[in-house]
Design a protein that fits this description.
Length: 155
């Protein structure tokens, strides 16, 4: 089951990156063209937030109960979490950065509900989504990194 959850987590990152990129582009163009906030933009932001939260829950399961989860793995004798790059990344850096990204995306999506001008909604949403995208790109274990994973499951 952990392997299937890991594959799901991996596939969902691509869905999130596409949705988040679309959210960044839509919010930037809405901000620059000073257009009214549309239902389509609200739905895109909501779908982005939903997929981010689903991926977060799957990642939380993997962090706690996955193949190298906190409750299913014991550290090798004499190993410190912060001195081991694998455990530091997957137990500390990756979860912390993704919690920050989830919060930024949720706040960005929440801009659509505020009673402020639409241009301001687009501007604030753009910056929250853009920073979240940067944080996510940093937190992903890209191939070529010491702790890298394949681009697609099973590769």
């Amino acid at each position: 089951m952990a392997t299937g959850m890991l594959h799901l987590h991996n596939i969902l990152r691509w869905v999130i990156l596409i949705l988040l990129l679309a959210s960044v582009i839509k919010s930037f163009t809405g901000w620059q063209s000073k257009k009214a906030l549309t239902n389509g933009d609200k739905k895109l932001w909501l779908i982005t937030m939903v997929f981010v939260n689903i991926t977060f829950v799957v990642g939380l399961y993997l962090l706690l109960f996955g193949r190298f989860g906190m409750f299913t793995t014991t550290l090798p004798e004499g190993t410190s979490v912060m001195k081991d790059s694998f455990y530091r990344f997957f137990w500390v850096e990756h979860p912390l950065l993704n919690i920050i990204a989830v919060a930024l995306i949720s706040i960005g999506r929440g801009q659509a509900k505020k009673a402020i001008p639409d241009t301001t909604k687009y501007k604030k949403a753009f910056w929250f989504f853009f920073i979240a995208l940067i944080v996510l790109l940093i937190s992903i274990p890209w191939p070529g990194r010491e702790i890298g994973r394949p681009l697609f499951p099973g590769m």
